[in-house]
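Field reference: sequence -> structure
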Amino acid sequence: MQVRDIMTENPACCAPETSLEDVARIMADQDCGEIPVLDERGRPLGVVTDRDITVRAVAQGRDPAATAARDVMTGSVITTTPDASLEDALAHMEESQVRRLPVVDEDGVVCGMVAQADIARTAPAHETAELVRDVSQPTLGRGTYAGA
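Structure field:
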């Protein structure tokens, strides 16, 4: 099975200057917890998760209407491709302790998203359990948030 078989195509995305208020609205409208932040060519610069909004903005007293996605995004983006095997995607997610991966085409442009939930619906139960266990490990001592 390949990533293309389970990914969500054309995921909701935002620009670096999009306000967190708008990012949160997109998340609510699309029922998702992560929005890729794209450059003008559609390539990922980072991602904003619902946790990024909560921990890096709201908990610090920032105004979501006046704070841009670039101000709280996780800048190191782990991606996969549509042709990657499900096993490779799982390994990337486990190693990086992330629950979602933007999917990029041969030009590096975001074309989809694969999430832990997609895997739970399609992968064997033991692979899903392993993914949940591995991405849920404590990350004590890490200076950056790995993504939730």
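Note: The beta strands are 8-9, 34-38, 44-49, 100-104, 110-115.
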